[in-house]
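To whoever picks this up:

The nightly regression suite flagged RNase adapter RapZ as changed. Nothing in the input moved, so I suspect the structure step. Input below, exactly as stored in the fixture:
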Amino acid sequence: MRIVLITGISGSGKSVALNVLEDTGYYCVDNLPPALLSSLVQTLQDEGTEALAVSVDARSAESLATLPGDVKQLRTAGHDVKVMFLTANTHSLVARFSETRRSHPLSHEMRPGQNPASRRTLIECITEERERLSAIEQLGHVIDTSEMSANKLRTWIKDLVAIERAPLTLFFESFAFKVGVPLDADFVFDVRALPNPYYDLALRPLTGRDAPVIAFLDAQPSAAELLKDIRDFIEKWLPSFKTDNRSYLTVALGCTGGQHRSVYMAERLAAYFHPTERVVLRHREQS
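Regenerated output under the current build:
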């Protein structure tokens, strides 16, 4: 059975991800206690279900500790299990709860000795949730949705689910430092030292995927040198990550605006590794 397990911070887009999977034919269950996961899988398998998506959140605090073992057991039994951990920075989460006027799931929990009239603030709820989920954050692929639209998240979820089971998937992601470093990055490379096409008025409206910008950066010796350094680093350490049974490795390339240099570098790296590795390419600041 194909199983997608969605977890992460409330407000980071878990409902969006679950809806995407439901639209693509997955049997979806929201807020399932991890203790019930194995029995649910067995029941649905007996009924002939081929694809299952389950959302797990911090309200299942008491059984979260069993989740890594449950995932390992399901994989050992032959199921194709993907785990997605969605997160976002606190500023973005506060803005989203304010926009939707919804309360945080943990705001309804009563702490020992707490006055019923005194509940956790939103910031306290987010902090508590991060602590509860910290042990399972690296269980799967971390997706930072801080500066991501719902439409872009839908696209990324579809791309991730479409990936066939493989020893490791390389994600190359371009981003803008002025917006913030992606929380899901395993490695971050700063390419702002390269000449900036932005200062050429003819190149400014273009991106690192356009031929004139590519030609401009191809002509820079520093771009070729930096590209080789990053490529050599990844090639050197990639076998170690595969040996460590990592499923995903995210390499983030950042420049000032996330339009030219970082896009160029991400495209070049993805093209280089594509013939030998499973590669996914994404540009955070572009629709």
